[in-house]
Design brief:
This is VWFA domain-containing protein. By secondary structure, the chain is an alpha/beta fold. Helix 2 links the parallel strand 1 and strand 2.
Length: 238
């Protein structure tokens, strides 16, 4: 949001920019856990979930309204896909990048992933209404200072840091931050369905009311979803 305000202010003052910035509704930075706590089979399930979800235009519109960047994290952070506005012309490149991911193993550097995506989102040429970081993990941060990374992200203009926690070991309460942010508790078995709905919410800009959460739960049950509430005061899919 801060970046949008800066560009809007520049336009209002009639300041000339060297090149016009491209407009998107939302910039979404995806952080994917590829640490050693995830088995190779479950990493493939996670990867295939991202590929299937982001290949679906009902989840990810192809009209340029969404700009997406992707990193994966273990002990270190690796860039998977540099932020681009997604259209029919480059969706193939995004899917190819996701399909090309290999698992690094190692520790769980969520702090580094948030810091990397914060820099990518706040320094690119896109102007958007909302800037969102979306972390999926089966564990909790054990490299770097997560609280500082969250604080720095919000101060830099990131609107939300949302979390998709996989299994009982995920600590989304330490990840989630920002007004309207939310977390989803999932399993590897229902990961794709959980991810699809989560990204749809992030792209649309809404936070479901309790009744909507209930309908989502029923939908996930069809594909084997089993979700739990873990923290009072922060929206979570139960």
């Amino acid at each position: 949001m801060l970046k949008s305000m800066i560009y809007s202010g520049a336009a209002a003052l009639g300041l000339a920019l060297c090149a016009p910035a491209s407009a998107a509704t939302v910039e979404l930075g995806l952080a994917i856990d590829d640490s050693g706590s995830i088995s190779s089979a479950n990493f493939l399930l996670q990867k295939s979930g991202y590929v299937a979800a982001l290949s679906d235009p009902t989840v990810l519109p192809l009209d340029g309204s969404v700009a997406i960047g992707v990193v994966k994290f273990s002990s270190s952070v690796v860039n998977v896909f540099t932020t681009q506005q997604i259209t029919s012309a480059n969706i193939g490149a995004l899917i190819a990048a996701l399909n090309g991911m290999t698992q690094s193993g190692g520790s769980t550097n969520i702090a580094g992933a948030i810091a990397t995506l914060t820099t990518q989102i706040t320094t690119n040429a896109f102007v958007s209404d909302r800037q969102v970081i979306d972390v999926s993990t089966d564990g909790e941060n054990n490299v770097g200072n997560l609280a500082l990374a969250r604080s720095n992200a919000l101060s830099a203009g990131i609107d939300q840091i949302n979390c998709l926690g996989i299994g009982a070991g995920a600590n989304c309460g330490a990840v989630q931050a920002g007004a309207g942010s939310f977390s989803v508790n999932a399993t590897f078995g229902n990961f794709e369905a959980s991810l699809r709905r989560k990204i749809q919410i992030e792209v649309s800009g809404g936070v479901p009311e309790p009744a909507t959460w209930a309908m989502m739960i029923l939908g996930f049950a069809v594909v084997g979803g089993a979700l739990r509430r873990r923290r009072v005061g922060l929206p979570q899919l139960v």
